[in-house]
Design a protein that fits this description.
The protein is mainly alpha-helical. The protein is built from four helices and no strands.
């Protein structure tokens, strides 16, 4: 039996919620929340009228992505790019 769009949304929301719990740790929660707020403010008025459940889903997804990126940086995944991206950090 095919699931309804409402069931599909609920399943996707649960998956993102699970990723959020696993990814957005205390050390990254504030920065991830700040990043989500910045992106939201750039979206204009369109998201203001979205259902609260959808806004929360979008916020959680943004925070998951941001926290995962922070963890990659912390783990050194981009060390070779830092000099290129931020040369002023290495100027004496």
């Amino acid at each position: 039996m095919a699931s309804t769009p409402q069931e599909q949304f609920k399943n996707a929301a649960q998956a993102i919620s699970d990723m959020h719990v696993a990814t957005v740790s205390g050390e990254h929660a504030r920065a991830a929340g700040h990043a989500a707020a910045n992106l939201y403010s750039g979206a204009g008025h369109r998201l203001l009228y979205a259902p609260p459940e959808l806004r929360q889903l979008i916020t959680d997804a943004i925070e998951v992505g941001y926290a995962a990126a922070l963890q990659d940086v912390r783990n050194g995944e981009f060390d070779s790019n830092i000099l290129e991206w931020r040369p002023a950090l290495f100027e004496g």
